[in-house]
Design brief:
192 residues, Rossmann fold, two-stranded antiparallel ribbon, globular, 9 helices, alpha/beta, 15% strand
């Protein structure tokens, strides 16, 4: 079984590609979904997040995701501290989950595999790319964020050109037919 990372910048269409892969019968692990579960329910994470951010991070017992995003995107040191706490736990959950799968390929969808060097832990990584304006429109429609907020988040991720140098598996999500591109990448992955 090969472990395949699936990544791309905000609004690139990772979830869309992941959904197609699932429809094709491949299991997909969603790192951001798992991280959100850890924020809400993992005792160590809850304790550490309260120490880092204070009691307000769990206002009325509910984790404050928008407050977290606001703080992390404006403070790289804080972002690194939270990443060091969460990423090993998410990776552990992925490995447990992958061990229960029976397909020849399993996928891990995550936004910052290259930025954190986590891509090195996979057998291969697929990069989803899309034009910046397309990405901005997608995120505005999905998350109701301002253009400035989106551009701030984009600035916290590596540019596509830098990531493209680290993988031969690239899917252009700009209106071109996706299924054909996905099938071509799968053929390549299975032939290695």
């Amino acid at each position: 079984m090969r472990h395949i990372g699936l990544t791309g910048g905000i609004g690139s269409g990772k979830s869309t590609i992941a959904g197609v892969l699932e429809h094709m019968g491949y299991p997909v692990f969603y790192s951001d979904v798992e991280a959100k579960k850890l924020y809400v329910a993992h005792p160590l994470v809850k304790k550490e997040m309260s120490l880092i951010f204070g009691a307000d991070i769990y206002k009325d017992g509910a984790f404050q995701f928008s407050y977290l995003a606001e703080r992390l995107f404006s403070d790289p040191i804080l972002k690194e501290r939270v990443s060091k706490l969460l990423h090993p736990l998410v990776r552990e959950r992925f490995n447990e989950w992958a061990g229960q799968q029976t397909t020849d390929l399993v996928f891990n969808e995550a936004a910052i595999l290259f930025e954190t060097a986590a891509y090195q832990q996979f057998d291969a990584t697929i990069l989803i790319i899309a034009p910046l304006e397309t990405r901005i429109q997608r995120v505005q429609a999905r998350d109701n964020l301002s253009r400035e907020e989106i551009l701030s988040r984009v600035a916290n991720q590596w540019p596509d050109a830098k990531k493209m140098g680290l993988t031969p598996y690239i899917i252009q999500n700009d209106g071109q037919p996706l299924l054909q591109q996905i099938e071509e990448v799968l053929i390549q992955l299975k032939s290695v």
